Amino acid sequence: MIAPSTASDLTRRLAQEQAGSRLPSLAAGIVRGGELVWFAARGTLDGRSAGRAADEHTQYRMGSITKTFVAVAVMRLRDEGALDLADPLEKHLPDTSIGDVTIAQLLSHGAGLQAETDGPWWERTEGGPWRSLVAQLGRRHPAGRLFHYSNVGFGVLGELVGRLRGTSWSNVVAEELLEPLGMNRTTKRPVAPHAHGLAVHPFADVVLREPEHDGGAMAPAGQLWSTVRDLGRWAAFLGGETAGLLSAATLAEMCKPLVVVDVPGAPWTGAHGLGVQLWNDGGRRFTGHGGSMPGFLAEVRVDVETGDGVVVATNATSGLSRGFAAGLLDAFTAAEPRHAAAWQVGEVSPALLALTGHWYWGSTTFVLRAMDDGWLRLGPADGAGRASRFRPDGDGGWIGLDGYYAGEPLKVVRRADGDVSHLDLASFVFTRTPYDPSADVPGGVDRAGWH
Q: Which three-class secondary structure state does DSSP give residue 430?
């Protein structure tokens, strides 16, 4: 649990936001260690003073957070071998006009598809079947060239999931994700108690009821309803508590930035991975997604490194302050910093230990450290430059995991007597002394030596 003073401060912030932004109701929670450690709500389900108060079991429409569930369903299919992210869509859905775009491009909003349907505003009208959506599919940009957010693309991905599983996308999400995770208050349509979707008049304290329909073929883009408690479990999932439903490697793959949200004249702070939004806040990376539908706004944001997360939901079409969710999480982590894990003695084999220490790429000093999981870490001695961890490849060498050397081979080259001559990292030679003349340095070493 968190300190009473921290809980009081977070609750105060939520109350100020609900009142200051004129939100009918506002609910939020903080997740740490896979658990909802703080929750608060302010306001009522219909915005009236005599209405039912919002609580942790109140359903709100999550909007585009739905996309993260569809994305996980796609990645599970990939891990089972039912598809490849590089597959063109036509391999699995041959009846579209966009068959050359890849599944990865659809997941990352890099397929160049239109943002919305061609018909009436889909978020406020009854949705049609797949055949009505497929007739509208079109492009705005060449595939793979830039980020262009596409709700339509996730309608396509929902059909892909359903087609490969032989059922609807929503059944797949319910059976494969919601039920195993105990998210029994997350549904395709609202189930009481739920908030009413409302628009607040910009110049008067009155509200207008927003419509709610089944989105049909567009439902995978923003249909699901959920509670702060259930979305807290989903935040824990995105933070690594996947209950075996997704491997750590696949989750990490989803959270790598693939398409940057480029704003001219400003450093990038947002990107998209495989079905998730990513935020870069001063070097700290966050994953999750925002959501908006008529009458509702929501956000799930999780620190990629620590797994700490925040969930926010309100039943207003607009008004929630930009950065409110991030501010709650920042306030929590500042007040409740994580303690460093205690250092413990590990186990390192003598052969691995013998490789540790200083190595030189040309005249640049690197340090090789042994990690107690049998991995290595190689990086510049001054901390600036290319660094990477390496895991054993099962054949006496290692494979890079990070940055420039991700996927690149690291080999230990030995002399005839078995002593180590040098390290070969993707053709770069690292020697025990700068430009060791006894090692096989590409281009040779000047016979005059250092002078």
A: strand
Which two structure tokens, joined as six digits, stand for 295?
């009458």
- Ranges of CATH 2.40.128 domains, the chain: 350-430
At 20, list the tokens: 């200051």
CA separation for the pair 301, 287 (Å, rounded): 6
H-type alpha helices, 293-405: 324-335, 350-353
Residues recorded for the chain: 451
Q: Report residue 220 CA to chain centroid gap.
A: 17
* Spatial CA neighbour of 197 closest among 126, 66, 324, 293: 293
Cβ-based burial of 416 (10 A; exposed 0-12, middle 13-18, buried ≥19):
exposed
357 pLDDT above the threshold of 90: yes
Helix 66-79 crosses helix 151-165 at what angle (to 10 degrees)? 40
Token pair 């007739």: residue: 135
Q: What SS3 state is found at 109?
A: coil
Where in the chain are all domains bearing CATH 3.40.710.10? 24-335
Could you give the residue ranges of the DSSP H alpha helices within 298-357? 324-335, 350-353
- For residues 232 and 311, the answer to whether their CB atoms sit within 8 Å is yes
Largest CA distance in the chain: 91
pLDDT tens-digit series, residues 42-99? 999 998 888 899 999 999 999 999 999 999 999 999 999 999 999 999 999 999 999 9
Helices first, then strands: H and E counts in the chain: 11, 20
CA-nearest of 247, 312, 253, 252 to 38 is: 312
Q: pLDDT at position 372, please?
A: 75
Neighbours of 226 (CB within 10 A): 29
Within 8 A by CB and 6+ apart from 330, the residues are none
d(CA 21, CA 318): 9
Residue 243 near residue 181, CB atoms below 8 Å: yes
Give rounded-to-5 percent helix, strand, coil for the chain. 25, 25, 50
Backbone angles phi, psi at 371, to 5 degrees: -105, 150
- What is the DSSP pairing of strand 284-293 with strand 277-281? antiparallel
Asked whether the whole model's pTM tops 0.85, one would answer: yes
CATH code for the domain defined by 350-430: 2.40.128
CATH code of the region 24-335: 3.40.710.10
327 contacts 281 by C-beta, under 8 angstroms: no
Task: Name 301's bridge partners.
Answer: 288, 310
Rounded CA-CA distance 86/107 in Å is: 11
User: CB neighbours of 176 closer than 8 A, spacing ≥ 6?
Assistant: 73, 76, 245
